[in-house]
Design brief:
Layout lengths: L3 E2 H17 L6 H13 L5 E2 L5 H10 L1 H20 L7
Antiparallel strand pairs: 1-2
Helix pairs in contact: 1-2, 1-4, 2-4
């Protein structure tokens, strides 16, 4: 079995669901990857071995408002950092 960090999926979903509100200067794949990496470096990982446990970890995150707001805050900060200094060369 492979080890998976469920936080990667959570960050991806938060970024996707809030992309318009984040008002990033660039939303190319490189910039979005940089936002995800930056955010994940500032969040604790949630590792699982059994993929059947992923819905439980995600549910805990979604039900706990403080946890959900913290992830949104970290993703927003990451989007600001990357928007201020994009490395993609598109801007």
């Amino acid at each position: 079995m492979a080890i998976k960090n469920v936080m990667e999926t959570i960050v991806q979903d938060v970024l996707k669901n809030n992309l318009t509100q984040l008002r990033m200067t660039c939303t190319c794949d490189r910039c979005l990857d940089d936002v995800r990496a930056h955010a994940l470096n500032h969040l604790p990982p949630k590792y699982i071995v059994n993929p059947e446990h992923q819905p439980y970890i995600r549910a805990v995150h979604e039900v706990n408002q403080n946890e959900a707001l913290n992830v949104l805050k970290i993703v927003t900060q990451a989007a600001t950092v990357i928007s201020d200094r994009p490395r993609c060369g598109n801007i």
